[in-house]
Amino acid sequence: MTTTASTPTTVPPLRPASVRHGGVTNAISDAMTLIGRSIRLTRRNADTMVMSVVLPLLMMAMFVFVFGGAISTGTEYINYVVPGIIILCTGYGASSTAMSVADDMTSGMIDRLRSLPIRSSAVLVGHVTASVARNAVATAIVVLAAVGMGFRPNATFGEWLLFGGLVLLYVLGLTWLAAAFGAVSKSVESAGLFGFVMLFVPYLSSAFVPTDTMPAFLRPLSEHQPITPVIETVRGLLTGTPIDRGGAALAWTVGVLVVAFVVAVRLYRSRTSR
Q: What is the pTM of this model?
């Protein structure tokens, strides 16, 4: 009687970017496949989309109709607060990427993808692209609702384009940062902490009140954190207030995007190659 030694099967790691069979064409095909998957998941997970819109709308209504009469900003408060709400909306929407990536990491989806000739970066590209598309819809709804509440932007066509470009860079940076957070999270619940951070940080900025009304110990943090110049630049583009920190806003958004992209890809590859 003979026995045949069984060879343990191992799951191959996701194909790194350096292994390119088919070059750019296959890279685009991989990315499009995973983008389609992420968009389908977004349609099925309607509560994420609803919350990314409803929460900013509720906060905007609360600040405009409940607190607006007690807050002096030198202008109509709704024109002051809407740019901050837009940035809060995009930040909170981007944070859901952390949970999506963490779900893939902990549900066994990555193990199934390892058996396919798919580049590892395509998984993150799928999540990030779907998040940006979801954010674009949510932001448009928030702007339209703000106009219905009395927001009156006076931006030119060129200023609207600059606004869109800056917000896109900001969303991309935060989405890749969320992807990095999701890649190292041990559970979907822990990845959800990123959403709490993105809801809290705008309060320590000029989103809702001018920074010079804050206590002295908070003012330096509020004035020099990355979100403040982004909000002030968006406010200037939409409402015509002076834009003094446009360069800082661009530098912060591009810097966060580059660093977050590199970190997210490296952390993801490190974890999926184990």
A: 0.82
